[in-house]
Amino acid sequence: MADRSAELSPRDVVVVDDSTRYGHKMREMVTLVLGAGRDLDDRAECVSHQEAMAMPEEFWGRFSVALVDAFDAHRDQEAMPVPVGDVVRRLEQLGSPARIVVYSGNFDLPYFNLLVRGSTNAVGYFDASALLREDGAPMRSALLDDEPMYQAAVPKSEEVVDLGEGADLAKAITALRDDPSTWRWALGLTSWGAVDQYRKRKVRNVARDRLKMAPADRPDKIRKGRELKNRSPDHGSIIEVVQAALGLSRDRK
């Protein structure tokens, strides 16, 4: 395969990361891979997720590649901790950049991995550590190859056993985000008891229709003041799946 690195300058790449320190490491690796023989000032750009969402079209028109960190550890308490989908949709609305690469330190979490893939349309999905490998091979492939190598593995069905066939985590999370009450519950900020009956029904519908969960794993119905099953939905499968998908819990492997 012909070396296409000469066609891409570090200045053509923007890194979107919640950590300035880590984002700058990515920027340095991009510069190392693409910057041979170039001016020392020819460097990639680095912005936060919040800055990325606020930048005008003129800013994005400068870049051919965006490396986007999937997780934002510095979000507001009730903001989406996996903002990569929002960033990518923002870029797609602008028609730029043409190439999006997603990375994270959480792709070993299968539910998180699955959510990120369902929320974005990227060229590749990489463990952050892989892109920082000293030889630069994964970063070079991520930036230049039509089908990048060294990507994080797609979760196997046995790793996401709480989900039924045809489950759509991205749509489930979107449905929960549409209402502050269900979203606060999903983030673990309020209890099941604080959710009204209408929204409890909505959560059960999400479990059934979006997550395709088995009946025994869905939140309990309340009928005539009695719980049908002696199990708290705040510690049941649905909230565990949601928390794992949001990267807020590392208990699931």
Key features?
elongated, 253 residues, two-stranded antiparallel ribbon, alpha/beta, 11 helices, 5-stranded parallel β-sheet
Task: Describe the structure concisely for a colleague.
The protein is α/β, with parallel strands linked by helices and 253 residues long. Helices cover 38% and strands 10% of the residues.
Structural write-up:
The chain has eleven helices and seven strands. Helix content is 38%, strand content 10%. It is elongated. Strands 2-1-3-4-5 form a five-stranded parallel sheet, with helices on both faces. The chain has a two-stranded antiparallel ribbon with strand order 6-7. It starts with 12 loop residues before the first strand and ends in an 8-residue tail after the last helix. Strand 4, helix 5 (110-119) and strand 5 form a beta-alpha-beta unit. It is of the alpha/beta class and 253 residues long.
Question: What is the element layout, followed by pairings?
Answer:
Blueprint: E1 13-16, H1 20-34, E2 45-47, H2 49-54, H3 57-60, E3 65-69, H4 84-94, E4 99-104, H5 110-119, E5 124-127, H6 128-131, H7 137-144, H8 169-177, H9 180-186, H10 197-210, E6 222-223, E7 226-227, H11 237-245
Parallel strand pairs: 1-2, 1-3, 3-4, 4-5
Antiparallel strand pairs: 6-7
